[in-house]
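Forgive a beginner's question, but would it be possible to get a protein, spelled out as residues, together with the matching structure tokens, please?
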Amino acid sequence: MRRPESIAGPKNMQGLVATVSLSSATVRSGLDGEGVVTITNNGSETVSINTGSPLVGAVVRSGTSTVVGVLLGGIGDLGDGASLQPGQTHDIQALFGTASCDVALGYALPPGSYEVVVPVICSNTAAGTNSPSLSQLVSTPAPLTVVA
């Protein structure tokens, strides 16, 4: 499987926005971290979403969408979904890793400041429609410090 070089996508999709909250803003180099992605419906229509759980985030260079760290290994993926009325939220567990994508940096990310973003690939159906669409919503970044 090829690792992504960058993570791009809308920060707002049919009124849905995703924010990631990390369990800890600090993680040791080479270890994995976790958090929660909160999807909020800021739109005026009810939106149904279906996605996986846990979601898998990536570590990016601060202020960019360039992926520098990923989670290695397999995870059990379960389905998750919700029908969100305007103003409602839905939380989904998220995981991320500090395995380096650039062997010049070593096998694990060196200590420093980074950000975590989580792509939320979901099938959603807006109210009044019968056909779902597959989209990638990208969370707002959360600051992360990698330590030795």
